[in-house]
Amino acid sequence: xxxxxxxxxxxxxxxxxxxxxxxxxxxxxxxxxxxxxxxxxxxxxxxxxxxxxxxxxxxxxxxxxxxxxxxxxxxxxxxxxxxxxxxxxxxxxxxxxxxxxxxxxxxxxxxxxxxxxxxxxxxxxxxxxxxxxx
Length: 134
Description:
Elements: E1 2-5, H1 11-17, H2 23-31, E2 35-40, E3 43-53, E4 57-65, H3 74-88, E5 93-99, H4 104-110, E6 114-119, E7 127-133
Parallel strand pairs: 4-5
Antiparallel strand pairs: 1-2, 2-3, 3-4, 5-7, 6-7
């Protein structure tokens, strides 16, 4: 699998799959190099986007992998790649979160993330905040 910074030409691929974020924000995140594209041969199979919590701590927002490529280690590969990129940039801590009713919490714990808090929004499941020293 190849992992590359998203380009403007990846915009449609991303917004066709990412229903959680404003389309204009996707454009900015591409410009700010905060989205990675996952490719298998010449085919785009997913993406990962992040930002910075408190403007100083890398925060993994979301990973999307097309259905046929899931459960094959692609998610783990992109998380480890991202962690390495953040370490090379001088960061020592990374964060992510997941809803308590999602299996992703177990995925992140297997990768060494630890529960660090939670957020409770009205009429929403508990959001678990996870951190990892890199």
